[in-house]
Amino acid sequence: MFNVMFSKQLPAWQTSLVLVGLTWGLSGITAPAKAIPSNSVHPLSSQLAQAQPVPPQQLQANAEAFVDALFAQKYDQAWQYLAPQTQAENPPAILQRKGEIFVKRTGDFRQRVSSRVDGAIVVIKVEFSKLTDDLIVIMEPDGKVLGVDFPAAPNDASAQPASK
Q: What distance in Å separates the CA atoms of residue 118 and residue 60, rounded to the nearest whole number?
């Protein structure tokens, strides 16, 4: 599993997404994820309670717009789609560095192939010059991007060769 970025502070409602030993970040400076006990109150829970949920179509549109901006090297624009805690941890300069490292691994971005919404997760199939695979975009209820995961490395079985 290849983690592009996640906020280190997941809201309590998303603790089920945290796996033991999952690491954050792409830069090589990683820290173990910490799950929030289900009976504790997360400091961001009051913000989440005030946030107005958006429909699944808006989650999908925001995730797609984030991916498009990121791979078009419009880092300031991509940053605007991030949740506040993810913005704090990933200013545009960090997004740029992570994007450059990511593209070295996957090859140049070619196109979005498809996307689908599954609850708070938007799965976007993306074609790069070296492979085609899914980006997993974790969304906040208000339509902001909490994190992105790219499950495959170029030699993983789940990755498909890029179309010629």
A: 10
- Per-residue pLDDT of 88-130, as tens digits, reads 999 999 999 998 998 888 999 999 999 999 999 999 999 999 9
- What is the CATH classification number for the domain harbouring 156? 3.10.450.50
Q: Note down the domain range covering 149.
A: 1-8+53-164
Most confident of 3-12, 119-128, 143-152: 119-128
List the one residue out of 4, 127, 115, 111 whose CA is nearest residue 56: 115
- Cα torsion 32, 37, 43, 45: sign: positive
121 falls within a domain: yes
Tokens of 135: 């980006």
Residue 117: predicted pLDDT? 97
